[in-house]
Amino acid sequence: MTKAQSIEEFYQNQFNCIPESLKKEIGHFNIFHREDFCCANKPVPYSRKDYYKITLLKGANKIHYADKTVLSEHNALMFSNPMIPYNWEPLEDNQSGVFCIFTEEFFSQYGAIKDYPIYRPGSNLVYLLDNSQLAEIEAIYQKMFDEIASDYLYKYDVLRGLVFNLIHTALKMQLTEATRLSPSNGTARIASLFAELLERQFPIESVVQRMKLRTPNDFAAHLSIHVNHLNRSLKEVTGKTTSQLIAERVSQEARALLKQTNWNISEIAYSLGFEELPHFINFFKKNFNQTPKIFRNETNV
Question: In which region does residue 109 sit, left (phi positive, over 0), alpha (psi from -120 to 50) or beta (all else)?
């Protein structure tokens, strides 16, 4: 699999140097205007980064992450994390915006950022903004610029707070039909544990790495509950069965591996837990109406 871009590579590629502060810091944070980069109007390569990034995209864009595509006609806020590959395609020349980057270590004494709701498996990573929301987000970024330029001794504590402010602002936007469901605490906990177990098996980065939990019975046994109880809990919380959720995540990883690696299809099938290649081909055709080979050929054109 294509190696995730490190934060050092980001600076080397964009500025042809690595800041001295980055070499000394335990954690790192920085903020930039998109229009200061020559590639602002060009498609971003579909890849993972080993740092976190929160981007305000101003202008029409088609945004891809994991196996999802979101069309943003005006303004969008995107949360990128090291687990999910992503890119976006500018649909017009008039592009601008802001982005901040930070490492997991930047929050090392403030809890695990990867466990925060917006970065949990299955979370929405793109938020379309109306004019009022745009103004609110831009105000937060402006505070970041003001703070990072200041001489205040504790400015990085303030910047951590402003990152959380962005996260909470986005979470408040996440009021969808699903929020009308009120599952019991036990049911929600089972769904959360299932999602964590499923996501912990990804991304697959080596041909010798293989999914160990592959069926509803595998997950139920690991959680020490009956498979019917697991199905009922997931159905109540997500509206989907255990098998559907597993298939969706396996499909997502299959597409990523076919796009980003030069592994043969048998190796990909094995890493995703398929004992026989025809089983994987049939699975892929059922979900995408084409064979893995055709998908790979069309993607790499």
Answer: alpha
